[in-house]
Specification:
Layout lengths: L1 E7 L5 E4 L1 H11 L4 E6 L5 E7 L3 H14 L13 H10 L2 E7 L2 E2 L5 E7 L5 E9 L1
Antiparallel strand pairs: 1-8, 2-7, 3-5, 3-8, 4-7, 5-6
Length: 131
Protein backbone atom coordinates (compact mmCIF):
# COMPACT_ATOMS: atom_id res chain seq x y z
CA UNK A 1 0.00 0.00 0.00
CA UNK A 2 1.55 3.33 -1.11
CA UNK A 3 0.41 6.78 0.00
CA UNK A 4 1.55 9.94 -1.78
CA UNK A 5 1.76 13.31 -0.04
CA UNK A 6 2.46 16.72 -1.53
CA UNK A 7 4.14 19.56 0.30
CA UNK A 8 5.34 23.05 -0.58
CA UNK A 9 8.69 23.85 0.93
CA UNK A 10 9.04 27.44 2.18
CA UNK A 11 12.72 28.14 1.45
CA UNK A 12 15.79 26.94 -0.44
CA UNK A 13 16.94 24.81 2.48
CA UNK A 14 14.75 23.56 5.28
CA UNK A 15 13.60 20.47 7.10
CA UNK A 16 9.81 20.03 7.17
CA UNK A 17 8.30 17.77 9.83
CA UNK A 18 6.19 15.13 8.02
CA UNK A 19 5.54 12.84 11.00
CA UNK A 20 1.79 13.57 11.02
CA UNK A 21 1.44 12.60 7.35
CA UNK A 22 3.29 9.32 7.99
CA UNK A 23 1.06 8.62 11.00
CA UNK A 24 -1.95 9.33 8.78
CA UNK A 25 -0.76 6.81 6.18
CA UNK A 26 -0.31 4.17 8.88
CA UNK A 27 -3.78 4.85 10.25
CA UNK A 28 -5.38 4.70 6.79
CA UNK A 29 -3.60 1.45 5.99
CA UNK A 30 -5.10 -0.39 8.94
CA UNK A 31 -1.79 -2.22 9.40
CA UNK A 32 -1.05 -2.96 13.06
CA UNK A 33 2.37 -4.62 12.73
CA UNK A 34 4.92 -3.94 10.02
CA UNK A 35 7.04 -1.14 8.68
CA UNK A 36 6.76 2.14 6.84
CA UNK A 37 9.21 3.18 4.16
CA UNK A 38 9.23 6.94 3.67
CA UNK A 39 10.74 7.83 0.28
CA UNK A 40 11.64 11.06 -1.51
CA UNK A 41 11.63 10.82 -5.35
CA UNK A 42 13.71 13.99 -5.84
CA UNK A 43 17.47 14.33 -6.42
CA UNK A 44 17.83 17.56 -4.43
CA UNK A 45 15.83 16.58 -1.35
CA UNK A 46 15.86 13.76 1.16
CA UNK A 47 14.27 12.15 4.20
CA UNK A 48 15.69 11.79 7.71
CA UNK A 49 14.69 11.01 11.27
CA UNK A 50 16.07 13.34 13.92
CA UNK A 51 15.06 15.48 16.87
CA UNK A 52 11.71 17.17 16.45
CA UNK A 53 11.37 18.82 19.86
CA UNK A 54 14.04 21.54 19.56
CA UNK A 55 13.86 23.50 16.27
CA UNK A 56 17.49 24.56 16.64
CA UNK A 57 18.56 20.99 15.76
CA UNK A 58 17.18 21.19 12.21
CA UNK A 59 18.70 24.67 11.82
CA UNK A 60 22.05 23.25 12.93
CA UNK A 61 21.81 20.44 10.38
CA UNK A 62 21.23 22.92 7.55
CA UNK A 63 23.96 25.23 8.88
CA UNK A 64 26.48 22.37 9.10
CA UNK A 65 25.70 21.08 5.61
CA UNK A 66 26.04 24.60 4.18
CA UNK A 67 29.40 24.99 5.89
CA UNK A 68 30.74 21.69 4.55
CA UNK A 69 29.03 21.82 1.12
CA UNK A 70 28.77 25.50 0.16
CA UNK A 71 26.79 26.55 -2.91
CA UNK A 72 29.75 28.81 -3.82
CA UNK A 73 32.05 25.85 -4.48
CA UNK A 74 33.12 25.75 -8.17
CA UNK A 75 30.94 22.79 -9.21
CA UNK A 76 30.64 21.79 -12.89
CA UNK A 77 26.88 21.14 -12.93
CA UNK A 78 25.30 23.91 -15.03
CA UNK A 79 22.05 24.25 -13.07
CA UNK A 80 23.81 25.79 -10.08
CA UNK A 81 22.38 23.34 -7.56
CA UNK A 82 25.18 20.80 -7.20
CA UNK A 83 25.37 21.51 -3.49
CA UNK A 84 21.71 20.43 -3.20
CA UNK A 85 22.43 17.14 -5.00
CA UNK A 86 25.35 16.38 -2.69
CA UNK A 87 23.43 17.31 0.48
CA UNK A 88 20.55 15.07 -0.61
CA UNK A 89 23.00 12.21 -1.18
CA UNK A 90 24.44 12.65 2.31
CA UNK A 91 20.98 12.66 3.94
CA UNK A 92 19.55 9.87 1.78
CA UNK A 93 16.30 9.40 -0.07
CA UNK A 94 14.45 7.19 2.41
CA UNK A 95 14.04 5.92 5.95
CA UNK A 96 12.30 2.86 7.34
CA UNK A 97 10.34 2.90 10.59
CA UNK A 98 8.71 0.13 12.61
CA UNK A 99 4.94 -0.03 13.05
CA UNK A 100 3.85 -1.65 16.30
CA UNK A 101 0.25 -1.90 17.46
CA UNK A 102 -0.80 0.51 14.68
CA UNK A 103 1.65 3.23 15.70
CA UNK A 104 5.01 4.30 14.39
CA UNK A 105 7.86 3.58 16.81
CA UNK A 106 9.91 6.74 17.20
CA UNK A 107 12.09 7.81 20.10
CA UNK A 108 10.71 10.36 22.55
CA UNK A 109 12.21 13.33 20.71
CA UNK A 110 12.28 11.93 17.18
CA UNK A 111 10.37 13.18 14.15
CA UNK A 112 10.47 12.42 10.43
CA UNK A 113 11.63 15.24 8.17
CA UNK A 114 11.47 16.06 4.49
CA UNK A 115 14.82 17.75 3.78
CA UNK A 116 14.70 20.46 1.11
CA UNK A 117 17.97 21.65 -0.42
CA UNK A 118 16.78 23.35 -3.64
CA UNK A 119 13.53 25.10 -2.86
CA UNK A 120 11.15 26.58 -2.46
CA UNK A 121 9.34 23.97 -4.51
CA UNK A 122 6.22 21.86 -4.77
CA UNK A 123 7.41 18.43 -3.68
CA UNK A 124 6.05 14.99 -2.92
CA UNK A 125 7.01 12.01 -0.85
CA UNK A 126 5.76 8.46 -0.69
CA UNK A 127 4.93 6.22 2.26
CA UNK A 128 4.91 2.47 1.61
CA UNK A 129 3.28 0.42 4.36
CA UNK A 130 4.43 -3.19 4.67
CA UNK A 131 2.80 -5.80 6.87
Amino acid sequence: MVFEYRISTPSRECLVNITKQVESAISKSGILEGSAIIYCPHTTAGITINEGADPSVVKDIVYFLNDKIPSSYPFDHAEGNSDAHIKASFIGSSVCAIIDNGRILLGTWQAIFFCEFDGPRARRFLVKILS
